[in-house]
Structures are given as C-alpha cells and as structure tokens.
Design goal:
Layout lengths: L1 H10 L14 H9 L2 H12 L16 H16 L4 E9 L9 E10 L9 E8 L5 E2 L2 E2 L10 H18 L7 E7 L7 H12 L3 E7 L29 H12 L11 E10 L7 E6 L14 E9 L8 E2 L15
Parallel strand pairs: 3-6, 3-7
Antiparallel strand pairs: 1-2, 2-6, 4-5, 8-9, 8-10, 10-11
Helix pairs in contact: 1-7, 3-5
C-alpha cells in the first residue's frame, strides 16, 4: 500500500481548491484509503494459482500457464471502468537465448487517458511483470517448468498495478497514465524492451516509469523484517531526471503533494552539499526570475529550482549542472 501511495503523490493533479504549500491532498488521501490489503493479497494468490506463468508455459489452457494468467489480468483491467483502454501488446519473439522457441509474448496494457488536451500526450507508466521463473542451483531452470508460482516476483508488482488502476479509475488526471503488466522479464526484460522500442518509434512522451518488482517481501534471508521502509531505485548520474523523480517521491510522499503546476506562485531554491545524495535546504524566494544567495560557495553546494503552483503543487527539481567544457583542438609544430 505504501508503494502505491507514493505513486499517487507523484501523479495526482486534478483541479483543486486553493491550499497551502506542502498541504496534503484530500483526493489523494481518498484514493489511498480505498486500497485494500485483502484485495492485493487475493490478486497475488490468484496469480499464484496459475501454477506457472513462465513465458514459455501453456498459452492454450484457461486455468493454467501464462495464457490464462494474461487473460485474467486483461479481464480485471477491463472490469474496472470503460474509461480504461485495455489491450494486448503482442509480439512473436524468435528463438534466442533463454527464449528457447518462437514465442507468442503479450504485455497487458490499460490506458487511463489524460483529461487535458495538451497534457494528455505526456505519459506516466506504472508497471510490473507477470511472468515467473524457477531458480535452480545454476540459475534459472528450463522455462517449461511445471510450477513457478512467482508470488513475490512479481505477482506483488502486478497486484499493485491492478489495484492502482481500480482505485484511480474514477478520477481525472491531466496526463495519461499507462498501467503495464510485462511478460518475458525473466528471459532478459524482453517485453519491456519491445515496448520501449515501440514507444520510441511512435515518439511517445514518457515523463516517468514507476516499475514495481518484488514489492511484497518485507523479510530478509537472515530473518530481519521491515515493513515500514520502501526502497526507490533510480538511475545515475546523481542529478539525472530519474534521481529527481526519486527525490521528489521521497520529499512529497508523506505530504500527498501533486506534481503538476497550474500557474506559478513562486519558486523554491533547493541546495545540497556536493557530498550529499539528497537535497538538504529549501529557500522560498517568491515569484522572481533571479535571486542572490549570499555567502554561499558554489564549490561546496549543488543547486536546483522547483516551481510552486497557485494551489500549492510542486514541480520536479530542475538541477543546475555545469555544462561540459568545450573540447579544444591544438595544432603542433612539426
């Protein structure tokens, strides 16, 4: 549930009454409260009941194998709301590597269209993978295994996506939200790689991908349990857009702050020591185009800017990064 709540904080931005900066969003709270732990568990158990969801498992049976699993996921998305545009993203993958035969691979996609005509072209993807595998002493076993329940890896992530779609279906979002259950992850991210290539070819604008993998496990191999911590992984470098999304989730999650700016009330300068991985200071400077920071060494601090909307919403941080030094060409005297 905590994982889904943080996703909401990043995505939610309907028209709201004026509210103070950093104030919780009441509609986000309603969606979070609608998330059911019992439904999440029931979804995981249902996906487990297909016995094996190996990418190379049975596709003809209605009760067992990846074919039955993907149809069930499709039907669940379809049942939530006519607003969700549900489809199979289908490919025939030729025999290669751990794909040991030509294989019918299908990602399951449910699209919640954005309400803003201009903003709907921007997409946020919420994903997990529904295929499973079985580990042996030497790594993954042959894929046509009899049983690979995959409750944690990754029925838990698919359950989060399904429950997220169910909870968000009745709300309006300015941007388009795409829920994806990938196949072929255990053979080398096959389904997600194919969709990435398709999205590039079709010039999708993707603002963020929030992937949920193995999110149902709160116990470690040494017996240590922690169900109060959520790990958010993001790509290098330190000031990449991916890192800004992760910092944003960490910062606004507990406050239910939406990300979309509707009109600018002002700006916040954020700062961190060059040795720190996260922003340490926030300075609200108002609706200005420049501001002087006195007695601050640019050699010791990193800087960024956030815009604050009239309704208290915050943008992602735009970090200042030194431009690369131009390469010089030198001639030598023979």
């Amino acid at each position: 549930m905590r994982s889904f709540a943080l996703i909401l904080f990043l995505l939610f931005s309907p028209a709201l009454q004026a509210q103070s900066w950093k104030a919780p969003n009441s509609d986000v709270q309603k969606i979070v409260e609608s998330i059911s732990k019992d439904r999440l568990e029931a979804t995981v158990r249902k996906l487990e009941s297909f016995e094996s969801r190996s990418t190379l498992s049975d596709t003809a049976s209605t009760t067992r194998g990846i074919g039955a699993a993907r149809q069930w996921i499709y039907d669940q998305f379809k049942s939530y709301s006519p607003r969700l545009q549900v489809s199979f993203d289908s490919y025939v993958v030729a025999k290669t590597g751990r794909i040991t035969k030509d294989t019918d691979l299908r990602n399951v996609i449910a699209v919640l269209p954005g309400s803003d005509p201009a903003g709907a072209v921007r997409r946020f993807l919420i994903s997990g993978h529904y295929d499973s595998t079985l580990q042996g002493p030497g790594g993954p076993r042959p894929e046509a295994v009899d049983r690979a329940p995959g409750a944690n890896d990754d029925a838990s992530g698919v359950a989060a996506g399904l429950e997220g779609a169910r909870g968000m279906r009745q709300y309006q979002f300015p941007h388009t939200i795409v829920f994806v259950a990938f196949a072929g992850e255990e053979q080398g991210l096959v389904g997600s790689t194919l969709l990435a290539a398709k999205s590039k070819k079709e010039s999708w604008r993707i603002d963020a991908v929030l992937n949920n993998d193995i999110i149902g496990n709160s116990g470690g191999g040494n017996g240590f349990a922690d169900n109060h911590t959520l790990r958010v992984f993001s790509e290098d470098p330190n000031d990449s857009l991916s890192r800004q999304v992760a910092r944003y989730i960490k910062d606004v999650g507990p406050r239910y702050t939406p990300s979309m700016v509707v009109g600018v009330a002002g700006y916040v300068i954020v700062m961190r020591k060059t040795t720190s991985p996260d922003w340490e200071r926030e300075i609200y400077v108002g609706n200005v185009t420049e501001h002087v920071l006195k007695d601050v060494s640019i050699d010791e601090w990193g800087f960024g800017i956030r815009a604050i909307g009239q309704n208290g919403t915050e943008s992602l941080t735009s970090a200042y990064v030194n431009p690369p030094r131009a390469k010089a060409a030198f001639k030598t005297v023979p």
